[in-house]
Design brief:
77 residues; mainly alpha; 39% helix; elongated; EC 2.7.7.19; nucleus; ATP binding
Length: 77
């Protein structure tokens, strides 16, 4: 399954999927599917599908990357 990055240039990042990230993706697909099924049954609304994710409560571990450069040219390296 191609996984297209949202930033330019768009690329397929599917090769980066590991066993653990595949598990997380499957859980999220199942969660979204459950809400879509409830929408079809008039038990939920579309706004429920697009609720913000509570990222820092949902995940115990995460990685933050801060990139700093002296000037804009340093960001193109």
């Amino acid at each position: 399954m191609p996984i297209i990055t949202p930033a330019y240039p768009c690329m397929n990042s599917g090769y980066n999927v590991s066993t653990s990230t595949l598990r997380v993706m499957r859980e999220q697909f199942q969660f979204g599917n459950k809400i879509c099924e409830e929408i079809e049954l008039n038990k939920s609304q579309w706004k429920d599908l697009f609720e913000p994710c509570m990222f820092f409560k949902s995940y115990k571990n995460y990685l933050q990357v801060d990139i700093v450069a002296a000037d804009v040219d340093g960001l193109h390296a």
